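Module 6 notes. Inverse folding takes a fixed backbone as the condition and produces residue identities as the prediction. Think of it as a translation problem where the source language is geometry and the target language is the twenty amino acids. Below is one complete input and output pair. Work through it position by position during the lab.
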């Protein structure tokens, strides 16, 4: 993608205008995300063979290696002996876990790309928050709902995809270089709506797209989550809440708006263990 010059007076307007135009056509993301989108389509094909899935994953060696590592992690190792090849790893993890893990690894690669260097610290913070939210979503879904924990984990991973997308697109505009506070404000104001539009454009499930539409808007937490949106909201709070606002406003005051019932706090040890396991493999 060519770097855009925009107009010095309104770079934010130009960026948002370009994103809106892009959402109506073909969404542009780095190569690794293209792989994840292709993988998702293959996983939805009931006739796709294990060999075909493995062949697609081999196009991105880092993802393939990390999936083998995840299959050998504490969360999955109890299912059998050490995994030494990609096909066996896919079988052990299951297709939903493969999809979630591939996306998490793609995000990890994105934040470490040279184009993201200026926003590296902020992007890393967002990524760690996303992994924490994914871990919390899995644990909450597994312990308190009938929602598939793997679907909940994927929703947790993508809940801030709009923030990553805004950061990636901002790197293409010279006007934003050296203006990290401006970019943070853009993320704070627009990441939810852009994330929702992005998931729709990528063909993600409707309930998942709806779950991230207002995940950062403070509201009373349910005693027991009833759907994916409520799981994502609670998981986001458990993972630190409004991490996008750090350095933008009064974070302590903002976070004080979040109050969770004690039942969620009791899950903290399990969430911490799940997050540590995920970070050890995906980090």
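Target side of the pair, the amino acids:
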């Amino acid at each position: 993608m060519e770097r855009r010059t925009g107009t010095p007076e309104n770079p934010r307007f130009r960026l948002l205008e370009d994103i809106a135009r892009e959402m109506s056509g073909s969404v542009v993301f780095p190569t690794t995300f293209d792989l994840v989108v292709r993988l998702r389509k293959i996983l939805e094909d009931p006739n796709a063979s294990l060999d075909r899935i493995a062949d697609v994953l081999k196009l991105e060696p880092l993802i393939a290696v990390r999936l083998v590592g995840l299959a050998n992690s504490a969360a999955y190792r109890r299912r059998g002996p050490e995994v030494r090849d990609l096909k066996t790893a896919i079988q052990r993890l299951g297709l939903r876990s493969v999809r979630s893990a591939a996306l998490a690894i793609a995000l990890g690669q994105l934040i470490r790309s040279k184009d993201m260097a200026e926003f590296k610290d902020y992007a890393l913070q967002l990524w760690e928050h996303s992994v924490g939210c994914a871990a919390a979503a899995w644990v909450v879904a597994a312990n308190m709902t009938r929602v598939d924990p793997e679907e909940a984990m994927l929703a947790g991973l993508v809940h801030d995809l709009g923030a990553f997308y805004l950061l990636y697109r901002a790197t293409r505009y010279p006007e934003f270089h050296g203006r990290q506070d401006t970019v943070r404000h853009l993320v704070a104001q627009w990441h939810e709506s852009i994330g929702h539009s992005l998931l729709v454009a990528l063909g993600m499930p409707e309930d998942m797209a709806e779950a991230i539409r207002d995940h950062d808007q403070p509201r009373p937490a349910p005693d027991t989550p009833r759907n994916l949106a409520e799981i994502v909201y609670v998981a986001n709070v458990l993972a630190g809440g409004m991490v996008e606002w750090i350095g933008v406003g009064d974070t302590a005051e903002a976070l004080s708006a979040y109050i969770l019932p004690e039942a969620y706090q009791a899950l903290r040890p399990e969430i911490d263990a799940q997050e540590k396991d995920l970070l050890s493999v995906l980090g």
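Reference fact for the lab report: The chain is about 65% helix and 0% strand.
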